[in-house]
Amino acid sequence: MKTPKRSPFKRWLFRIFRKNETAIRELNYLFWECTWRCNLSCRHCGSDCQSEAHVPDMPFADFLLALDPLEKRYPRDTVIIAITGGEPLLRKDLAACGKALREHGFRWGIVTNGMLYDAARHQELVAAGLSSVTVSLDGLEETHNWLRGHPESYRRAMNALRLIAHTRGLSYDVVTCVHQRNIGELSRLKEELIANGIRYWRLFTIAPIGRAASNDTLQLSRPQLEEMLQFIAQTRQEGRINITFSCEAYTGKYEESIRDSYFFCRAGINIGSVLIDGSISACPNINRSLVQGNIYQDDLMEVWDNKFQAMRDREWMRCGPCAKCKDFTQCLGGAMHLHPALGQPVLRCYKFS
């Protein structure tokens, strides 16, 4: 497969755009880690959640109070609250939380494994103003169930996707963690998704964090990583399903063919999170040593305005393999979650020349 030629002018324009976005730093996508409870025990879990988490669910009233300065600053419908976990569907008050968020002018969505997403729950959430859903599907049935640790997980996730994909006005995507056991299944999984009317698909690789840090068999080899990128590029050319690579990393020569835009890690620039204990951070996948405050002591917007400097000036990432890289100005060291801690080099480079 022939990759598109790089456009230096477009890449320059993108760097200007990214610089402006960083300077403006509008918080328009906020994760809420509402629970650490989960009904699965996935081999690759980034947060290492347990079925009976030792940390209690955050009271919704606490989270809603923290949103007050955000509600006052931004117009209605311009901020999305992404409810994650753990598994957010384990919260019996999820629909009530969503309805209240909608009443306060926030759009909201969930990230789910689909185990509890049946027709009744779907109708309840849509009636509460649900606007977006992300469902995980990590291979064909046997492989998905192996990774998720439950014999019913594939069937239930696919049932959830059918409900979601055929609901008008509901944004969604299916996300697939690509690893050594499912990379050979991507073509067949693509056909399965298309056959079920699913149009939006996002791929990413498994970062060596959480439970996945001790499971090297989940990590793609360098040739497998390029195989995945080539598959994405080829599938985009076919035009039968809308597929993208996640905001995980800069990929060099593949940038023009695997996404709608260039790589841009927006953690701390447009994306923030409120974690289970009230900690204020950027993307919930980044190292917890980069927490910037806590809603129980701090004003959310004051923290957003005056902290997060490690995310907005990423010169500290210019170390290890990034120290002398000619593409650093385009890449800025990759995604924040690929750095174990402040000042430490990136865990993996995704660039292909």
Can you describe this structure?
- The protein is of the alpha/beta class.
- It has helices spanning 8-24, 60-66, 68-73, 94-103, 119-127, 141-148, 153-165, 186-195, 222-238, 255-258, 300-306, 309-312, 328-331; strands spanning 29-33, 80-84, 107-112, 130-136, 171-178, 200-205, 242-245, 271-274, 279-281, 293-294.
- The model has no long low-confidence stretch (mean pLDDT 94).
- Helix content is 33%, strand content 14%.
- A 10-stranded mixed β-sheet has the order 7-6-5-4-3-2-1-8-9-10, with helices on one face.
What is the H/E order? HEHHEHEHEHHEHEHEHEEEHHH
User: What helical percentage do the residues reach?
Assistant: 25-40%
How many runs of DSSP E, i.e. beta strands? 10
Structural class: alpha/beta
The N- and C-terminal alpha carbons lie at a distance of 15 Å
Adjacency order of strands in the biggest sheet: 7-6-5-4-3-2-1-8-9-10
- General form: globular
Sheet having the most strands:
10 strands, mixed
Mean pLDDT across the residues is: 94
Unreliable segments (pLDDT under 50, ≥5 consecutive)? Answer: none
Strand content: 5-15%
The radius of gyration over CA amounts to 20 Å
- Count of helix runs: 13
Give structural attributes.
13 helices; 10 strands; 353 residues; alpha/beta; ten-stranded mixed sheet
Question: Secondary-structure map with pairings?
Answer:
Elements: H1 8-24, E1 29-33, H2 60-66, H3 68-73, E2 80-84, H4 94-103, E3 107-112, H5 119-127, E4 130-136, H6 141-148, H7 153-165, E5 171-178, H8 186-195, E6 200-205, H9 222-238, E7 242-245, H10 255-258, E8 271-274, E9 279-281, E10 293-294, H11 300-306, H12 309-312, H13 328-331
